Structure formats: C-alpha cells, structure tokens
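Q: I'm writing a short explainer about Glutamate 5-kinase for a general audience and would like to include a description of its predicted shape. Could you first generate the structure from this sequence?
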Amino acid sequence: MTTFAPQSLPNWRRAVLKVGSSLLAGDAGLDPVHARGLAGFIAASRAQGREVVLVSSGAVAAGRGRIGAAGTGTAKNGIVQRQALAALGQASLMGFWQALFDAPVAQVLLTHDDLRNRRRYLNARTALQELLRLGAQPIVNENDTVAVDELKLGDNDNLAAAVASLVEADLLLIATDIAGLYSGHPRRDADARPIERVEAVTPEVLAMAGGAGALGTGGMRTKLEAASKASAAGIATALFCGRDVATVDALGNDVLHGTFIAAHGSRISARKQWLRHSPTAGVVEVDDGAKAALLRGASLLPGGVRAVEGDFRRGDVVDVRAGDGTLLARGQAQYNAGESARIAGRHSRDIEAVLGFRYDEAMIHRDDLVLLQHTDTPKEATA
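A: Of course. Here's the predicted structure. Afterward I'll give you a sentence or two in plain language.
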C-alpha cells in the first residue's frame, strides 16, 4: 500500500483533536496503547504554549467494559442500551484520560442542541475558554445518555468540527484507524492511492469514503463531512492514523502523514457573516466614546452604554445604535436585557458588585460583534 508523503502543517495555536472509539476500545473496555501517544502529543503541544481541546469517544466502550459483554445481553432497543452504557462509562473514560495527563482533565458534555442554541453555545464557549485559561485539559464528549439522533448518526466527528468553531481553533485534527483518505477502500482495492490534499469536499471526494467502522459509529464519510463544516468556518482539517507511533510523533514537529483538507475564508468572516444576518432581539444605545471605540475594533464595555431596549437573553444578537439612532454594529450579548440595564454606564470592575457574578468585562466582546455602515443596511464598515 502506498504511504502518505510528509507535508507541513500550517502554524497553529489552538487545535481540536478528535479521538474515536476504534483507537480506544479494547477487549475489556478501554485500552491505552494508542491513547498514550496522542496524550503525549497533547502534552508536548501544551509545553510549546499551544492549546488542544480533546473530543473523545469511548464512553460506551468503557461502560461495556465495566459490566462485561454478558451484561449487555441482546436488548432489542439498542439506543437505550447505548445510552445506559454511556452513563456507566463516562467516569471511567475521564479516569482513563486523567491517568495519561499531568494536567487536571475537565469533562464537558455537549449535544448538538447545545451548539444550536445561541445562549447555551455562548455558555459552553465561556466555560471552555476558562478551562484553557486555568491550564486544565478539556475533554469534550457527546452527551450520549440524552442524545438519540446523534448516537444513531455517530457524529462525534461533526461534534468536533462544531467544537473547533466554538473555541475558534486554528486546526481540527481527526485521529482515525487508517492513514488518511484513499481513492478507494485501501483494504479492498489494490489500486487505491492516498489523497494527501483536498481543496474542497465535493461529492466526488465523498464518494471515495467508506461506511462506518465496527467499533465506532462513524466512518470516513462523517470525517469528511466534519472537515467540510470546519472548512466553511475557516478551519483546516488533518486526518491521520492514530495507531501509527511515527505519524503521531511527527505531528509534534508539525509534519502530517495523512490527508490535509484546506480551509476556505477565515474564521472571523464566517462568524461575522452569521452575525450580520441573524435576527435581533433588542437594541443597545451607546455614547460617542463607545461609538469611537467600536469603530476602532474594541469590545463594547458597559461604561459606554446609555440605554437598553428589548427583552433579550444572554447569547441573543442585538443591534448597537448611536444616540441619533444610527445603526453601528450587531453583536451577541454577554448579559440579558435586565442585567445589561443594571450595569449600563458602570465600569467593568463593578459588574460583579452589581450583579453578584460576572461573565465577561464586556457587554459584547469584539469577537462577537460585526461593524455595520452608519445606515440600516447591514454591511461591514471599513473603519
């Protein structure tokens, strides 16, 4: 079988690494034989000042290992059984990874609904960013105990793409049990050739992918679908074999032996596009000083807010207007309408004293804000 030639990875500061069940499951639960190398890569990256969010499958396999194959029986409702096994295995999965890291691990359970709901999306992002700031090792897993459709689809790959966008990663790394994407099934087609770079995930590229694996619930197709979503958010993806020690070691030197799927556009432009066209739930009126700061690219601090209108929740998108009614920007609120009204005009350091808590020093962070022309036409300002 033809091997993948080495290629350089782009510079990255934050990455999401997805590890599937096929790399973790053993005969009696979880087996660290492949996980050790991946954990070593994460540790080496952290030592270089980089950040890696781990998206890990394996809770179902860990749960099965706790009760043994006989305990699973032949239940007719496979989804219910998998939910129960996931609940049994979550603690074991975290203990499994904790044994491989010096840093404390932190479990984050998500479903796709958490990422579709803008308020929960913002809460999840804030929590992950704080975990990274604290030096913890976030480990994200799908909340299999309550997720039904996700379990049937087996798309922790797609969850990883969503997490990459959530934490504004530079790179999505997907560890699999084969070397990368081939033009055909490498174990069945003697003429299958490695595809080392994909510029866009087209129907022709998807046609090269096979079905689901035996241990995991996703296959190469779900990985390509995830890469396509990451690409649309401005994030490149690298597919590689997590079983191969040399391949994993090379990643630590920013060398990929696998398939690289290019990003399109930028992360910022993708998010700004979403904000530009989102329905708004309220209005925040700002003074001239805040207006000038916003046009320079700053966040909106509470001190520059004069009035709050509407009944919006944390995570909702609101319009930002000047005192004369001119539309300046559109952004995602860090505080709900009542909280925003209470801290309007106050210094950021007073937020906790007024509310009893503080999410952020800004009412709208600059990463969650798109500048508009000084009209009601939502076009990004050139200032």
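A: For your explainer, you could say: Residues 150-154, 212-217, 374-383 have pLDDT under 50 and may be disordered.
Q: Perfect, that's easy to follow.
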